[in-house]
Design goal:
The chain is an alpha/beta fold and 336 residues long. It contains 13 helices and 5 strands. The longest helix is centred in the middle third of the chain and has 32 residues.
């Protein structure tokens, strides 16, 4: 434990004393969140959006004129997805929902577009449908974005803060010197991982709390569940960095390989945009990334109020992947 404590303290102080890296990890995600909050503070599009729930092959004749309006975007959903579509209406992601099987329509009475699109529907012959009301506050883009930005910052901090540093140690001969000490490889690796875990968790909490103080994010779930999925995701990303650090000696090669992993994760993990409606192959590939499971689970907690059982598949994936990657890193690790 003394060896572990010494290695933990040394790595943590090395990070804190590097003021450039320290403040970059704090300021970059904050600037990014505020930047996107300002840039996308508006609605983002001028057209109305209507969800259509149908299992029938033909559309009701009295709705043909309504469905031909070019200023309205119509999105079709299967009949089994009625609850999901209505939930999107509660979030103001849709302006109206037409359920053609049940001959009814849903409108959000808290949406400013609700009365307008309802008047258009009545003027085009859709008054025969039964009216249903729902309520719900809108989800801002920044509410949806913040888990992705924090997750992206966690990914870079874990991969480059662990993998890149250990490779530099190996290249500079630091690991060769440590090999001559009583410190075991397991102690060294776990100390590096623990130090990075504490740093990234603290940084993530600071970024979230600091931006939430001004932007007031939507939070419908448990902060404890959010902390749990954050910690597990950080451990999983650290284990990815340890796999890279187990053998490589070249910083240039390590940087290239890490970028080869991080770029697809940023694109496919839903950091800046949703993968809903993307090709199934792309969605299956995204499921293999830990960042995908973090953004998915954290958004479910914050926006949908998901409990532990709802995020259990994400927790299970992160735990299994972390254990597997740590075993691979331990088997491949070399001092020199």
């Amino acid at each position: 434990m003394k060896q572990f404590a010494a290695m933990f303290k040394a790595r943590t102080m090395e990070f804190v004393r590097d003021r450039g890296t320290f403040f970059w990890n704090l300021l970059f995600p904050i600037v990014l969140v505020f930047g996107f909050a300002f840039a996308f503070s508006g609605r983002g599009q001028e057209l109305f959006t209507v969800g259509i729930v149908t299992g029938a092959s033909e559309t009701a004749p009295d709705l043909l004129h309504f469905l031909e309006i070019e200023q309205i975007e119509f999105v079709e959903y299967p009949s089994v997805a009625t609850e999901t579509v209505v939930e999107r209406l509660r979030r103001h992601q849709l302006d109206m929902v037409l359920d053609l099987e049940q001959s009814e329509y849903y409108v959000n009475v808290e949406s400013p577009n609700g009365p307008i699109i309802e008047m258009v529907l009545g003027a085009t012959g859709g008054v025969e449908l039964e009216r249903r009301e729902v309520t719900g506050e809108p989800i801002r883009y920044v509410d949806w974005l913040v888990p992705g930005v924090i997750g992206m910052n966690m990914m870079f901090s874990c991969l480059f803060g662990v993998g890149f540093v250990i490779v530099r140690y190996r290249k500079n001969g630091v690991l060769k010197r440590l090999k001559a000490t009583p410190v075991s490889a397991l102690t060294f690796v776990t100390a590096q991982a623990a130090s990075r875990l504490v740093i990234v968790v603290a940084t993530s909490i600071f970024v979230f709390a600091g931006t939430d103080l001004f932007l007031k994010f939507m939070m419908n779930g448990s902060y404890l569940n959010l902390l749990l999925i954050t910690t597990l995701s950080i451990l999983c990303m650290i284990s990815v960095g340890l796999v890279f650090a187990s053998r490589l000696r070249s910083e240039e090669l390590t940087s290239g390989l890490m970028n080869l992993v991080t770029l697809p994760m940023i694109i496919l993990s839903g950091v800046f945009f949703s993968l809903e409606g993307s090709p199934p192959v792309m969605q299956r590939i995204a499921r293999a990334f830990p960042l995908t499971h973090f953004t998915e689970a954290s958004r479910a907690i914050m926006l949908d109020g998901a409990g532990f059982l709802e995020i259990l598949p994400n927790v299970f994936f992160l735990v299994v992947l972390t254990v597997a990657l740590l075993l691979i890193a331990a088997l491949l690790f070399k001092w020199e």
